[in-house]
Write a structure and sequence with these properties.
The chain is an alpha+beta fold. Helices cover about 30% and strands about 25% of the residues. The N and C termini lie close together (about 10 Å).
Length: about 350
Amino acid sequence: MSDTLAERIAAAGLDASGPAVPRHPDIAEWRAPTRADIDAIHAVTAAADRVDHPTWVTPREDVADTFDLPEIDHARDSILAVGHDGRVVAVGTSLRHPDASVRIKAYLQGAVHPDRRRRGIGAQLGRWLHARALQQLADTGSTLPGELDLYAQDGNDGAVVIAEALGLRTARWFTTMVRDNAQPVRESSPPEGIRLVAYAPDRSDDARLARNDAFRDHWGSLPTPPERWQQFVGGPFFRPDLSTLALEPDGRIVAFCLASVNEDDWASLGASNSYIDLIGVVRDHRGRGLAPRVIARTLQAMTDAGLEKAVLDVDTDSPTGANTLYEGLGFVATERERVLTAEF
């Protein structure tokens, strides 16, 4: 592509000059958030979570972490809606992915408190986020492809209507799958020369590079930069003892299964559980049966730790046939989430 994103956005009849302050009779003030708003943001997000995906709730730590991410400028990228009673009732952020090597991507993330829905607040929030995301893409001056993404849980029809009104269309579905760890884990030895070990902190960047290689051909995936990776593996929920690395004799990481535990989700799911965040095999080692082996080791570690369930999310059109793999390991589909996308 030779024309810039700004030119392509303009050619589509869209304005990338930036968002105007929304207006709504139920909202006394629209403003940018500060660190002092972390609890208020989390309160809205958690209330929305309990309606939109009742088996898990966004941790407060995840909200707080956004104020330390270099790619988010809350003064420009985020907005709060404050009701006449002084309570925050809606929140939103347009997050541009920090990697710009392949495409320029922004995520529209927002929530309206369930007791303030169906009043048009979400539509106003969505228009603001869309305008800010277009501005973020245009301001890069890049000629790379551009993309806007919005994730909506199956059943969250309001979010879908808002996204479609902004020109986004459903591009992909992801499925949540749950496994009862009372099922025995099938034992199998790794291929000759491969060792399965627990994750070790001194392998952090090696694991990041393995993740970036493994996910290069996965839909929607972009490389994870060191800062964002460290926030994940150095965070309060990541569990090195449950996570697995597959190593070649020279120590190179060729496969991984990384897991976390958030005890706040246990009541929502009705059982103690661990979430499998990432499963991958570097591309020159695919077809050797490494994925089921690293998963099996992690599942056994969960069982040994007394965790009743394992949870993961999978792209329904995964190029590696992950759905079939997970079903064979005892995972059962429970919920679905769609990704609505606009490309430029």
